[in-house]
Structures are given as structure tokens and as C-alpha cells.
Amino acid sequence: MLNPSKFVRKAVILIVVSLFVNCNEITGGDRSRVIRFQYTGYGDSIYTILYGEVFEINKTGNINDTIPGSGADIKAEQNNKVVKTDATGSFSIALEKGTFTLTITKPGYQTLQMTNYISDPDRVSNTAIVLVKGSCIDHFEIAAPTR
Question: Which of 79, 72, 46 has the alpha carbon at shortest distance from 128?
């Protein structure tokens, strides 16, 4: 007969160990990442507009061979607003004033969290992101805008 307390203990240990594994150890060096981020100027809106493109690596081991990342979710954690990339991998998200963490997810791909996105009414920004197959979480801290 199975001892449930023994099983639970093993499961907890497995979860704790997996939380500390680095993306490099899992993927051999290929990591999801931001390849461009820029605060580009001002628009005419009460919201900040972030335009972006998401790409996927087409062939394992070749970061320069990408295809559009359609169907990825971009979520603003502070207000739970979610947009999805279109067939070309493009997206836009309008956010009110504040500082946001943007989480980019797609099943079968590493999650990417972009932290410290400063949303200022009327600002327009753009980004480009490459997602890599895997199951870990990578982080990218956005530098504060210069005026």
C-alpha cells in the first residue's frame, strides 16, 4: 500500500528543486529574451501604447532563424489585461499610468517577464521578443525612460 505522506514529501522536494534550475541548464543556453525595447515618443492618447512583435526560433540552435510567434499572450500583471499576438506575431496593448510587469507566454515556450515597464499617458513604445521552446521563466528589466 502507498504511503501518502511519503509521496507528498517527494513531490514537494521535486517542486522546490525545479524552482532553482537555471534556464541555461535546461535549454543549453538558448533563452527567451527581449531583442529590442524602446520608449519612442508620444502619441495622442490617455493611455500608453506598447507595440510589439513576438518571434519563435524556427530551428533548434539557430537564434537568427525566427518565425512569427502567433498566439502568444501578453499580460499586464497589475491589472490582468491580456492581449494575444496575431498571425504575424504583432500585438499592441494600451495601459493606464503606472509601472507594470508584462508576462509573455505561449504553450511549449519559455515564459518571459518584462519588469519595470513605466506607463505614462501619451507615450508610445515598441519591443521585439524571441521565445524559445522550454518551460522556465526568464526576466528582463526595462530601463527607465530618458526625457
Answer: 72
CB-based contacts of 43, cutoff 8 Å, min separation 6: 49, 122, 123, 124
Mean pLDDT of the chain: 76
DSSP state, 105?
Answer: E
How many C-beta atoms lie closer than 10 Å to residue 108's C-beta? Answer: 9
How many whole angstroms separate alpha carbon 56 and alpha carbon 66? 5
Contact between residue 102 and residue 117 where contact means Cβ atoms under 8 Å apart: yes
**Cα first-last separation, the chain:** 67
* Structure-model confidence comparison of residues 5 and 139, the more confident one: 139
Residue 99 in grid coordinates: 509601472
